[in-house]
């Protein structure tokens, strides 16, 4: 059995709430998992247990592939949970917790093998923000060369002032200025064509 059967369930029809929470937890964990196949291997037992409980306690939640749905009898009372079912649900929730722990460990081990991205430096963040501000020019003025040149002058001046106010090394100022100029050179070339 795979997670697809759980994904097809009508979650609103799954009763009791503890079972519904177990289904939602499994689906959330699956959506967060980076390696879906490994998740299926680790959580296979839990998925089967949850689905079997759904079949017992909430058969209405299972979406049937038939075109003509069967009419539901009116006045059907909600089934009460037996003590055995509650014990199963409690054991199942423990199983889900264990499954989550296994998945977290697996993801941590996977991340350890990959190199971490270095955090962007302050001057890089400032440069990116100034470039993104330049992208906010309204669409009707994007083709206007005068507006583009004026925006470039303002952004360069503002960038230099911010870098000087924060007392960041002048080498980094040159990198940012070049990035902003390159961005606007590309825009000017597009406009001239």
UniProtKB/TrEMBL annotation:
Domain of life, source organism: Bacteria
Biased composition (Basic residues): 112-125
Region annotated Disordered, chain positions: 62-87, 106-125
Protein name: Uncharacterized protein
